[in-house]
Specification:
- The structure is a single chain.
- By secondary structure, this protein is mainly alpha-helical.
- Helices cover 76% and strands 0% of the residues.
Length: 445
């Protein structure tokens, strides 16, 4: 074979190899991003647990230590609000509205104002700070913003053009890794994040959920968020729980989301002349109120509420008014503007509401807590499929599939009647408006 001919064959073969590598490069970066979401989610969860343990240790270390939250909560809330505004703008609140808003923005620069690795780092740090100071917040919503930020960085580094699909995939992977609920992550992406089914994005979402889930499983192992439950309606009273938890939980969730949107709008108008000092002062007032509520309830309303919710799912009744105190603490923590989610606190409120209903009706506490979580959560987020799947995966209670589905639907219908606007989508418009104002200010300057 002539040498020039052999060289030309080698050249063509090398081009094929390098061409295939250029095709695989975006996929490799995407896979690494999905794995990173799982690893970061597990690390975030462990930091959050350590923060809560640290707060519990401080407030139980002496005779008068239970009064420590009266200083720690307001100071921590003020520090978190200040740092979020100055160093990590648009990291406030849950993080899910920011991910939803970013999907509606067309310019890459606008998206980066809501989702970036810097914001993700600040979100983690300030959420952990909030939990160390006793805030009634969760880490699951923030994990959505973190996951979406990582995937948007993947789009930038790999040159992938599917930014909206990658944000969707990162959000789904964040929920799946945070709760160890892969199906709920997929359903959440379809129902809550996009409100439509996008066939072109389903492969990205599924792959991201699988890889982030594998990374999380490798570090944390296989587990159910609330352990294993095996309860089902056994009599007429138990079936009565379906109606009470569905309608009552949905109404309670609608009240939370409706009031959050209403007061959030009024607070933004009030803070407009001097946003930073007024929001920091508001955070301090909210922190003081959260501390007072926590002391009144013996510390039960501080933090995520995971232990209380799990205890109710295991059949241990919570105090009758626990759900009211937890709801108030979660509402104030949200209004304060500090970074932190409402997923876990909402589950605790729902479990407390169900426990109270079960105690008053004389039914099983475990079933009542599970149905209460479903009804209230469905009412808050107005996403019945997500509520049903996430509760089913977190409790493993396959014997109560039909009651859980019915409660999720009742909660959703009740909430839609009382509050027409879904919470996360209502909040997302706030961040879209903030990005538009920032862009106009830069153009004017």
């Amino acid at each position: 074979m002539p040498l020039p001919y052999r060289n030309s064959r080698l050249l063509r073969r090398s081009r094929v190899i390098w061409g295939s590598f250029s095709l695989w490069r975006p996929r490799l970066v995407f896979w690494c991003g999905a794995l990173a979401i799982g690893l970061v989610s597990v690390g975030f969860a462990r930091l959050a647990d350590l923060a809560q343990k640290g707060f519990a240790g401080l407030t139980a270390s002496g005779q008068w230590a239970f009064l420590l939250p009266l200083a720690l909560c307001p100071l921590g809330f003020m520090a978190s609000a200040f740092l979020a505004a100055r160093l990590f703008p648009n990291s406030q609140g849950s993080g899910i509205p920011q991910a939803i808003a970013a999907r509606h923005l067309r310019e890459a620069e606008d998206r980066s104002r809501l989702l970036s690795l810097r914001i993700a780092a600040g979100k983690i740090a300030l959420t952990v700070l909030g939990l160390f100071c006793g805030a009634s917040i969760g880490r699951e919503g923030p994990t959505v913003q973190v996951g979406a930020s990582i995937m948007l960085a993947v789009a930038r580094f790999s040159g992938m053009a599917q930014a909206r699909g990658l944000i969707l995939a990162g959000s789904a992977a964040g929920i799946a890794a945070a709760f160890n609920t892969p199906l709920a992550g997929i359903v959440f992406a379809i129902e809550e994040m996009s409100r439509t089914y996008q066939s072109r994005a389903n492969g990205l979402v599924l792959t991201a959920v699988i890889l982030s889930g594998l990374a999380a499983l490798g570090l944390a192992g296989s587990y159910n968020y609330f352990g294993e439950a095996s309860v089902s309606p056994a009599g007429l009273k138990d079936w009565g729980l379906v109606l009470v938890c569905g309608i009552g939980g949905g109404a309670l969730g609608a009240a939370f989301s409706g009031l959050a949107l209403h007061f959030g709008q009024r607070i933004r108008r009030w803070a407009q002349p001097q946003p930073l000092p007024r929001m920091v002062a508001l955070a301090g007032i909210c922190g003081l109120a959260v501390a007072a509520i926590g002391i009144a309830f013996g510390g039960a309303t501080f933090g995520t509420g995971y232990d209380q919710a799990r205890g109710a799912v295991e059949g241990h009744a919570l105090p009758l008014l626990f759900f009211a105190g937890k709801l108030a603490a979660s509402f104030l923590s949200m209004l304060s503007g500090i970074p932190g989610g409402i997923f876990a606190p909402s589950l605790a409120v729902g479990a407390g509401f169900g426990s109270t209903v079960g105690s008053l009706m004389g039914t099983g506490i475990a079933l009542a807590a599970i149905l209460g979580m479903t009804g209230y959560f469905s009412g808050v987020v107005q996403a019945p499929m997500t509520a049903f799947v996430i509760i089913l995966e977190m409790t493993g209670d396959h014997q109560a599939v039909i009651p859980i589905m019915a409660v999720a639907m009742l909660g959703y219908i009740t909430s839609r009647i009382l509050s027409r606007e879904p919470l996360y989508h209502g909040l997302s418009r706030v961040f879209i408006a903030a990005v538009v104002r920032a862009r106009r200010a830069e153009a004017a300057g």
